[in-house]
UniProtKB/TrEMBL annotation:
Pathway: Amino-acid biosynthesis; L-proline biosynthesis; L-proline from L-glutamate 5-semialdehyde: step 1/1. Belongs to the pyrroline-5-carboxylate reductase family. Residues 3-98 form the Pyrroline-5-carboxylate reductase catalytic N-terminal domain. The gene is proC. The lineage of its organism: Bacteria, Bacillati, Actinomycetota, Actinomycetes, Mycobacteriales. This is Pyrroline-5-carboxylate reductase. It comes from Rhodococcus tukisamuensis.
């Protein structure tokens, strides 16, 4: 059984822990290091898992998952490097932090320690995540397989080159926020058209769920599915015209480009420690 230590029990750390437990992983095989005491107590109570220090969590773990903000990664890696982590034990480091390249970890860890960089997203909380994984310099096929199995229990997994991870971050890492923003805007618009907030929310959420299921299961593209809803001279055409007039496509292009640029900047040596992703 793989023993997993999660360093950082924040939003993504919790999504992973919760998703793994729901997928049937035993609580005794999970340990969390969380430095904020109130948060540590909350996680211990809610998930009945051991919450401890970084050194203690890493000790005895087969896989150490780093889930702190990019600006908090360096001290965590320094603590791991000071522990009895070494290539011989085949302890695997998996980092979920946006922006930071694997060499930033490898340079500080004992030579040979494998590092796999992952960009997950929060829907793994409900088993519907998608993670892109990329091997660092010392990570072999078997390490990628371990990570694929781990993240595969909470969603889909794609393997990419590390050079593509900033683009992945822009598309799927941050992606849930774009859909939540669209949902928020649609609910507000529904309310302005006279619906109650509860009714507008129910309509919007189920429209998203149904549309996502069609995208995933119908075998048809987004373009084909949208065309099928758009009757000639009808209501959808009138709405889509307004969305195009509002610059929706350009807004998405610019937004994803900004996210990719920001991801690359987080890993650049000029980015100040502490200036990190929310
Ligand atoms: N939130 C998201 O949707 C995604 C986040 N990520 C990445 O995951 C990482 C964490 O992001 P969030 O969970 O959103 O941040 P967060 O701020 O919610 O969680 C980070 C947690 O780490 C804890 N922490 C900080 N230093 C620590 C240390 N030395 N030892 C133990 N615990 C420590 C903090 O107290 C906090 O609870 C970031 O690097 C981010 O780029 C990646 C994909 C998606
Ligand atoms: O906003 C962020 O920086 C993190 C990485 C991807 C999603 N959340």
């Amino acid at each position: 059984m793989t023993r997993i230590a999660v360093i950082g029990g924040g939003r993504i750390g919790e999504a992973l822990i919760s998703g793994l437990l729901k997928a049937g992983r035993a609580a005794r095989d999970l340990v969390v290091a969380e430095s904020f005491p109130a948060r540590a107590a909350e996680l211990a109570e809610q998930y009945a898992i051991r919450v401890t220090t970084v050194a203690d969590a890493a000790e005895g773990a087969d896989v150490v998952v780093i889930a702190v903000k990019p600006g908090d990664v360096d001290p965590v890696v320094a603590q791991l490097a000071a522990g009895d982590l070494d290539g011989e034990r085949e302890q695997l480091i998996v980092t979920l932090a946006a922006g930071l390249p694997t060499w930033r970890y490898e340079n500080k860890l004992p030579a040979g320690v494998p590092v796999v960089r992952v960009m997950p997203n929060t829907p793994m909380l409900v088993g519907e995540g998608v993670s892109a994984i990329a091997a660092g310099r010392f990570a072999k096929a078997e390490h990628l397989e371990t990570v694929r199995e781990l993240l595969g229990s909470v969603g889909k997994v794609v393997t990419v080159s590390e050079a593509q991870i900033d683009a992945v971050t822009a598309v799927s890492g941050s992606g849930p926020a774009y859909f939540f923003l669209v949902a928020e805007a649609m609910v507000d618009a529904g309310v302005s058209l006279g619906l109650t907030r509860a009714t507008a929310s129910e309509l919007v959420v189920q429209t998203m769920v149904g549309s996502a299921a069609m995208l995933a299961e119908s075998g048809e593209s987004a373009t084909e599915l949208r065309a099928a809803v758009t009757s000639p001279g009808g209501t959808t055409a009138a709405a889509v015209r307004e969305l195009e007039r509002g610059g929706l496509r350009t807004a998405f292009y610019d937004a994803l480009t900004a996210a990719k640029v920001k991801s690359a900047a987080l890993g650049a040596p000029t980015e100040k420690a502490g200036v990190s992703a929310e």
